[in-house]
């Protein structure tokens, strides 16, 4: 989340919940495909 927050120039705590869920799903897909 920290990288996404840096990209958007906001603290990762302030990321929208839907964006956190998208990032969780993306990371999960990466883990499952390795």
Structure, explained:
The protein has 34 residues and is mainly alpha-helical. It has one domain (2-32). It is built from two helices and no strands. It has helices spanning 2-8, 17-32.
What radius of gyration results from the CA coordinates?
11 Å
Mean pLDDT: 90
The shape, in one word, is elongated
How many distinct folded domains? Answer: 1
Low-confidence stretches: none
| Proportion of helical residues | 55-70%
Order of helices and strands: HH
Percent of residues in beta strands: under 5%
Distinctive features:
single chain; mainly alpha; 2 helices; 68% helix
Describe the protein's topology.
Layout: H1 2-8, H2 17-32
Short description:
This protein is mainly alpha-helical. It has helices at residues 2-8, 17-32.
